[in-house]
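Project standup — Tuesday

K.O.: blocked on the structure for the chain from last sprint. Re-posting the sequence here as requested.
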Amino acid sequence: MITSVAERGYNTTTVADIVAIAAVSRSSFYAQFTDKEACFIAAHRYALDYLIGRMTSAAAALPSRTWKERLRSDLSTYLNVLADEPSLAVTLHVEALAAGPKALDHRAEMLGLLASQTANARELARSHDASLPELPPAAFALYVGGLDELIRDRLRTATAESLRALVGPVLEAAYALFGS
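H.V.: unblocked you, prediction finished:
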């Protein structure tokens, strides 16, 4: 699904395309998924779980855990994985918008998880510096939504590789927004 959607787009991907790439029968596909949308949501969930797992592993390997280091780790891991795996990037940030209401709900869940991870990094900062003001959840939703839009714009106008160049500017914006 991820390969087909990245190559053809969600709307033009067919079950025949998916089974051909996966080298499985149509009956095997339908034994797993009710339709193309269900397959897309499963692929989207896989991609999200994969990214969150990579971010969690990278954060666990940090020598110290300041909020800035955690935010840098999460952001650079996320953008580097997307740059390394353009099909994943397109599936998560572009084609999810075309895949129907259930996919949009799943996308909203993904953005919410990323906003929560960002809020957790900010709470780490507040645990070390109580003078930092508490921020409303909307601040983290705006940050993640803005990042999502920047990623989508890069994928539309440049290459997945160019996502790596977003790390510095996005971190500067995050530090300013979150009170560095």
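K.O.: great, moving the ticket to review. DSSP finds nine helices and no strands in the chain. Residues 59 and 128 are 18 Å apart (CA to CA).
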